Amino acid sequence: MLHKVAFYPCCCRDVVVPVDLVQPYADRIVFCDIDERLEPEWRAQEPLLSRGVETEFRIDDARKVIESLQQIDVLFYRRDSAGEGGSALFVLGDSILPSILAKFPIHGGLIITDGSNSRGSNFKRMIRLSGLRKHGWRFGLAENQPLLESHGLHIIRVEPDTPAT
Prior knowledge:
The chain is an alpha/beta fold.
């Protein structure tokens, strides 16, 4: 059975709650951060994590981790910034997003995000009524938004863009 993989770049210490939030959408989550000091904290939190989701922790640059992954079904990204303590990595921007989309399955996937570190207007356009067409994909809000009110997270459908006939 193929796993549905979620990827959470620049996660810092945010590991317990995301496992519960991602569980309905993926059965494996890859956490990533560049800060080596996080590894002991991550390991200490492993017993608190839901047993329904396999977890993997990677200390490395998010761009390198993206390249190493075979598939990403769900991009989970929240609470990041360009300021002090933030990654200054614009995951939803045009320099990193295409490499993530290249790992999405042919039928598409999901982005679950609060819009952190948005570069340009990609996020704003993804969540508008008409959505966004870019990089060969269509982005639009999923019909159900169960995480919006409780966690401020938008669920964005990502589907292959097919030209209008």
